[in-house]
Design goal:
Blueprint lengths: L1 H15 L1 H39 L5 H24 L8 H8 L7 H17 L7 H19 L3 H20 L2 H13 L4 H22 L17 H34 L5 H8 L1 H9 L8 H9 L4 H20 L7 H22 L5 H19 L2 H12 L5 H17 L5 H11 L14 E7 L21 E7 L2 E3 L12 E7 H16 L3
Antiparallel strand pairs: 1-4, 2-3, 2-4
């Protein structure tokens, strides 16, 4: 115990040096480039599997139906086998990354990287309505953890590498390096320092460089977006407020049904492999008869941008995409909700725009206009990460003329989610993952291992302007350093904490898993 504590103190001292910071930035760049390469390969394989699936079902024959169903069931069984061995590869992976950052779980990085990769290819490749973006974040974080293990860096630096890997994953998945940076800070780390910011930017940029080198520099959506001219600012404000309300209600339904279907699927008390075999009939039938709602939905959005679709058909597509996403995510297969969320937001926006165009004679440009606003607003309603939502849509379209309207609709949506007391979906999934007794959240052999926590003191939080002795922390939590304005001091009980301080805490793995989340909340909670 004493030896481990001394070693951790040495590691903290190392982080102070400029040379160590430069080395850390290099590792973050390496993490970003490797993660970018893996995510690009992941993207290419998923696109190939989508083309193969669609071409296979171009002509439907009895033999193809039997063969196709057998392949779907075998792929489902393969994914379920991977899940049985490595349960942490399930879902999007974002709650798992948060769990690692809060010391609630540990990654077995290499086998989980392989099984997450191929499990996602198999699951999403069958056309299940899940996105590759969440898994890309998880893959990037696993790369960051792998770099940490290979180079044997400290617990303090682990957070940097994992956060950088996650940022690189989203950067390569969307061709959106700035959105990747902001998401990692806004959703995962929820705090930033100059060193963390430059590390995340370097990793995100490195991943984006690999993406552009292999797949080119085109934006996600290639379309001539035109901001519609409005006759009445007051009328525009009214229809935008109503739209934000529609999006918020739809987002609340999304969060509710996602958790509902997840619980219902787990409660089906039959053999897990038999359960999967029966379930895979649904993706098979959807792939044959309703291919528009398969996969993440990129091609569906592109089609909706360009085509005029009858209102009844739009409502049907929205209904199918919504509930098919719930069903697929409920299985726990490797796949995310990131892009399906954007698709549903775009579909709600298209329906809203079509209604305004048909019944209120608004220009046709408003249809695409509300599709874009719908994506950012829906992301805000469900994930509660408004800045990421705005930047993501700007980078995906390459059109910054929508910035003002995106700010307006996202702000309105965020206010409404506060009024409706909606919780961020990834936090809900995070809590549910650790509430499940079957989830592997602890490793008893690791309980006594010494780990380091970085806790950030927020403005007007419970920690601000308090002396360390007033925090009444458990004796097993030792604050060994307080960082402020680039300087580091050794504190005592009389040290007063200020907003922007970073607390370096040494404790055991068991204590960290119990208190990390509460410490993080208390240090940020406004009082």
């Amino acid at each position: 115990m004493a030896k481990d504590t001394i070693q951790e103190l040495k590691n903290i001292q190392q982080l102070k040096t400029r040379k160590r910071n430069i080395f850390l930035i290099f590792l973050c760049l390496l993490t970003g480039m490797i993660a970018g390469g893996i995510v690009v390969l992941y993207t290419v394989l998923l696109e190939k599997s989508s083309h193969l699936r669609n071409s296979f079902f171009t002509e439907i024959t009895p033999l193809k139906m039997i063969t196709g169903l057998a392949i779907f069931i075998l792929l489902g069984l393969a994914v379920e086998f991977m899940l049985a061995k490595y349960p942490l590869i399930g879902g999007s992976g974002i709650p798992q990354v948060s769990g690692l950052l809060q010391k609630k779980i540990q990654f077995n990085w290499f086998p989980e990287l392989l099984t997450k990769f191929f499990g996602g290819v198999f699951a999403i490749g069958t056309g299940m309505s899940m996105g590759r973006e969440g898994p890309s974040i998880h893959l990037g974080a696993l790369v960051g953890e792998g770099i940490r293990k290979i180079f044997k860096v400290s617990e303090v630096e682990e957070k940097y590498l994992v956060t950088c890997g996650a940022s690189a994953g989203i950067s390569a998945a969307f061709n959106a390096p700035l959105a990747g940076t902001v998401f990692a800070l806004e959703e995962l780390h929820k705090f930033f320092s100059p060193l963390l910011l430059i590390c995340v930017l370097v990793a995100s940029g490195g991943a984006n460089y690999i993406l552009r080198l292999i797949l080119g520099s085109e934006t996600t959506f290639q379309y001539n977006f035109i901001l519609p001219k409005t006759a009445s600012p007051i009328f525009t404000l009214i229809i935008t407020v109503v739209f934000a309300l529609v999006i918020t209600i739809s987002g609340k339904a999304f969060s509710f049904f996602l958790v509902f279907f997840q619980k219902k699927y787990k409660n089906i008390k039959i053999n897990r492999y038999l359960r999967v075999s029966i379930f895979m009939v649904i993706p098979f039938l959807i792939a044959v008869f309703f291919k528009d709602v398969t996969g993440g939905g990129h091609l569906l959005i592109v089609r909706m941008f360009k085509e005029s679709v009858p209102l009844k058909i739009l409502v049907l597509i929205l209904f199918l995409k919504f509930f098919y996403t719930m069903l697929c995510y409920g299985t726990g297969f490797p796949g995310g909700i990131f892009f399906p969320m954007l698709v549903i937001g775009a579909l709600v926006g298209k329906i809203y725009g079509e209604v305004l165009h048909t019944y209120f004679s608004l220009p046709e440009e408003f249809i695409v206009h509300f599709m874009l606003l719908g994506m950012a607003a829906y992301f805000t309603a469900v994930v509660r990460a408004p800045i990421t939502g705005i930047i993501l849509i700007l980078e995906m379209t390459g059109n910054f003329s929508y910035l003002f309207m995106l700010i307006i609709v996202v702000t309105m949506t965020y206010v409404l989610t506060e009024l409706f007391k909606m919780e961020p979906i990834y936090e809900t999934l995070f809590e549910n993952m650790f509430a499940d007794k079957k989830a592997e959240t602890e490793n008893s052999g690791e309980e006594s291992r010494i780990v380091t926590l970085l806790i950030h003191v927020g403005m007007n939080s419970e920690f601000e302007n308090k002396k360390i002795k007033e925090l009444k922390l458990p004796k097993t939590l030792l604050i060994v350093s307080v960082r402020a304005n680039g300087k580091e001091t050794i504190p005592d009980g009389e040290t007063v904490l200020k907003s922007g301080n970073q607390l370096v805490i040494i404790t055991t793995y068991k204590t960290a898993s119990e208190y990390a989340s509460k410490l993080k909340d208390d240090a940020a909670k406004i009082v």
